[in-house]
Amino acid sequence: MFRFIFLVALGLSFTAAQNERTARVVGGRNAGLGEAPYQVSLRAFGSTFHFCGGALIGNRWVLTAAACVFGRARNSINAVAGSVSLSANGVARRSTNIITHHLFDPRYIDNNIALVQTAAFPLNQNIWPVTLSSTVLRAEVPAVLSGFGATNIDGGANSDRLQILSLITAPNDEDFCIVDFDMNFCTNNGGGEGFCTSDLGGPLVSNGQLIGIASWNHPCGTGWWDVYARVSHYRLWIGAISGI
């Protein structure tokens, strides 16, 4: 109930991804080309505006947040990979199908995970799928978040450059992070660090494995926890649909 009330008070920040508000990874650094070859920028087909992140998990499959794609037509998205700059020539592939988790609840953001199927990406050192985590994540492990957008908590224009931010996963403790720990986990952010609106759906990677998909948060970069969908919990669902 706390989560529902808090999200309403924030104006349901995850829905802003569909309204094309500013995205940002706060407190990060510029990524090098090929440093996060699994990073995908999701854009409306025919538009250059980045509205959500995603993780390439196969040459035809992108894992993202259900809140990013809920209600969108199956062929309405361009997935762009292979570039650390929103304005540079990445490789774009149009969506052919969009599958949100059948138990996704936009009121509470439960099961906030989705698959976007695309035409095949060419795989190379700058476009490469990330391995999915299939084991229960230990708390307090180092992880890396990536995403596009502005670089300060005051907002402003999107950053053209992909941002990388090192984080620590938080203890599974409801006194610290109020989530369903079977489906989600949090990161222990410092002030001026974390993800924001259109970084939703983006990847959190630990030891070369995709452990989380950016799901929802408190106001950006304020030191509060960020919440991620726990990839290992959805491993069977992902495999049943994608074969991965």
In short:
The protein has helices at residues 2-9, 66-69, 235-242; strands at residues 25-26, 29-30, 39-44, 50-58, 61-64, 77-81, 91-100, 114-118, 131-132, 142-147, 163-168, 184-187, 194-195, 203-206, 209-217, 226-230.
Report on this structure.
The longest helix is centred in the N-terminal third of the chain and has 8 residues, at 2-9. The chain is globular. 8% of the residues lie in helices and 33% in strands. It has helices spanning 2-9, 66-69, 235-242, and strands at 25-26, 29-30, 39-44, 50-58, 61-64, 77-81, 91-100, 114-118, 131-132, 142-147, 163-168, 184-187, 194-195, 203-206, 209-217, 226-230. Strand 14 and strand 15 (209-217) form a beta hairpin. The chain has 2 domains: 37-129 and 235-242, Trypsin-like serine proteases (Thrombin, subunit H, Beta Barrel); 131-232, Beta Barrel (Thrombin, subunit H), CATH 2.40.10.10. The chain has 244 residues and is mainly beta. Residues 4-24 have low confidence and may be disordered. Strands 2, 9, 10, 11, 12, 14, 15 and 16 form an 8-stranded mixed sheet that branches. Residues 1-17 form the signal peptide. GO terms for molecular function: serine-type endopeptidase activity. Belongs to the peptidase S1 family. CLIP subfamily.
Helix content: under 10%
Give the integer mean of the pLDDT values.
85
Rounded to the nearest angstrom, the radius of gyration is 16 Å
Would you state the CATH class of the largest domain? Mainly Beta
Structural class: mainly beta
Quaternary organisation:
single chain
Q: How would a textbook summarize the main sheet?
A: 8 strands, mixed
Q: Please count the helical segments.
A: 3
Instruction: Spell out the CATH superfamily of the largest domain.
Output: Trypsin-like serine proteases
Q: Report the sheet-strand fraction.
A: 25-35%
Looking at the overall shape, the CATH architecture of the largest domain is Beta Barrel
First and last CA, distance = 35 Å
